[in-house]
Amino acid sequence: MKEITIHAPGTVANLVCGFDVLGLCLTEPYDIMKVRLLDKKEVIIRTTDNYPLPSDPALNTAGAPLLEMIGGMQREIGFEVSITKQIKPGSGIGSSAASAAGAVVAANELLGNIFSKEELVRFAMFGEKVASGVKHADNIAPCIYGGVTLIRSIFPLDIIPIPTPALFVTVVHPQIEVRTSDARQILRKEVLLKDAIRQWGNIAGLVAGLMKSDYDLIGRSLEDVIIEPVRSILIPGFHEIKKACRAAGAIGGGISGSGPSVFMLSRNRETACVVENVMKSVYDRIGLNYNSYVTTISQHGVTCLNTL
Ligand code: HSE
Predict the structure, then answer these.
(1) Do domains 3-162+298-307 and 168-296 have the same CATH topology?
(2) What is the CATH number of domain 168-296?
(3) What's the pLDDT tens digit per position in 103-139?
(4) Which end of the chain has less Cβ packing within 10 Å, N or C?
């Protein structure tokens, strides 16, 4: 039976001001997944790492989307999925989305690409539902489409790829776990009109800035008056990191997804590396372990390597 190996990259959801509607695809880190076509209607999950992730496909972020996919098909087919996670669960860089998006892109490739990207996002969102209790596509869509995506709506799905200028991304992941479901639970359910006005001005400004390659506008728009004030309390050193990274030349940034990772955008690699050192020095001083990455925006999303 046919088998494929893919890389499923991490993603930065929200892009500070665009809670649940904006996200970008990272070149690194990525999970490695092997998916094999079976001639039986079943999904088998094998993990090759030490993360305590469920192997019951209905409860697994890669398994649930595949069950949804084969559930609607007349053919007797299934998939066996082996996952080597390099994106830690609870890191805020789209670990659950990588498994979900990687699984459906690989499965689609094995089936001869019978589903559109939009249909793949719809399947993959079942993985996010399993992981966080809510369907959201701001990690899934950039992971499948690559680049920056705007999710104008999820019911019905309306995904708009946004062109971007050259941008370097620095990410620091302090080694604490923040579950997306918890980070969503602490949010206020209502917002003040004045805050909403400021926020949608920023979202529009960020999209316009990306499309016009206007770095100053991008920087001014990377402001979040609704989510960040609440979630930043979960991230040690957050405000210090943000201030110091901007002083070091970053265009701007903030919490990656639901945290605890923090990301910053820079115009060039040298600045992105200086920003990484700033992040490291804050966590070295606090005495907190971390992983850090200097990377770029992947324009490809999930990458298929070889089919056997
Ligand atoms: N938009 C989601 C959230 C992304 O912030 O809860 C989670 O990675």
Answers:
(1) no
(2) 3.30.70.890
(3) 999 999 999 999 999 999 999 999 999 988 889 999 9
(4) C
